[in-house]
Design a protein that fits this description.
Layout lengths: L1 E3 L3 E7 L9 H10 L3 E6 L5 E2 L5 E4 H9 L2
Parallel strand pairs: 2-3, 3-5
Antiparallel strand pairs: 1-2, 4-5
Length: about 70
Amino acid sequence: MLEIPKHGLWAIEVKRGATGRPERGFHIACDDLRPNRRFVVNAGEDRYPLSPELEAIGVGGLATELGAL
């Protein structure tokens, strides 16, 4: 979890491979903490939704997203 000033709480789970789904603990933490954004960070370059609340994103994409804040 990252607390980002003016942007709220972001939940981020990092995966080693080019794809992946979050683990059960990620979902439990999100249910408890209700983050504003949810990401599964992977080694790929594509960005796509995994669900209406969860987005898969590459490391570079997340860095760009954070750098733009």
